Amino acid sequence: MANLKKETIYFTKEIDAMLKKSLTLFLIALCFSINVNTFPAQAGISTFDSSIQKQYEEVGYTTTKKALTEFKNKNEKFNDNNIKNIDNAVPIDFTHKFGRITKRAELELEYVNVRTKSLFNIKVSSVQSSLKQRSSNERLMSTKEEIKFYAFENEKMHLIRFQHNGWEYEILANKKGSDNDANLNTLKQVINSITSQA
Q: How far is CA 117 from the centre of its chain?
């Protein structure tokens, strides 16, 4: 029990750090978008796009295509079906998408919509151990297709974790977006989309 409490504290801090990192980038982009609204439309869009891209590049992000290709090259078992299923799974309309390989060799993809303030983050890593509860706040659940996953939510976001075909997926969606219908049923659909034919 003491170990689970320690893991819960660590897990909560890890989630907070991940959310803060994503929201910080997102807010910087959002603040800039407010400023460029006074520019002519064409100039504003190109200036804004290069600004948000620069903010993400400064913390190691590139295009999702490059990140997926790099991850695929480093992981032979990660195939084109995995790539297609991940891109098709994103439940928000996004204005920007970025990807990177983390220091832990995880694939991290981030989809944002600066107009609606929606944010969706996916991490993929090879399975190191069986799926375990990391926090007492996580609930073990399963989809109709009997894929088990852990779900965690607070007032800011939803987080789910599951494993499939040797890969562990961690998906974070914020609750702030005006078009972000990220509820548990939506995230179950994301699991089904990612695991179909992968």
A: 14
Q: Which two tokens stand for residue 152?
A: 């965690």
CA-wise closest residue to 118 among 99, 98, 93: 93
Q: Is the pLDDT of residue 94 over 70?
A: yes
For residues 187 and 27, give the distance between their C-alpha atoms in angstroms, rounded to a whole number.
Answer: 24
Cβ within 8 Å of residue 188, ≥6 positions away = 143, 144
Which residues 6+ apart lie within 8 Å of 75 measured at CB? 126
Arithmetic mean of pLDDT, 167-172: 94
Give pLDDT tens digits for 22-75: 555 544 444 434 333 332 333 333 444 678 888 898 999 999 999 999 999 999
Beta bridge partners of 171: 122, 160
3-class state of residue 5 by DSSP:
helix
Q: Which two tokens stand for residue 120?
A: 């969706």
Enumerate the β-bridge partners of residue 159: 152, 172
Write down the residue that tokens 């309309």 correspond to. Answer: 93
Tokens of 34: 């407010």
Cβ-in-10-Å burial (0-12, 13-18, 19+) of 145 comes to exposed
Beta pairing class for 167-174 and 96-101: unpaired
- Between the alpha carbon of residue 78 and those of residues 20, 128, 167, the distances in Å are 29, 15, 9
Distance CA 99, CA 90 (A): 14
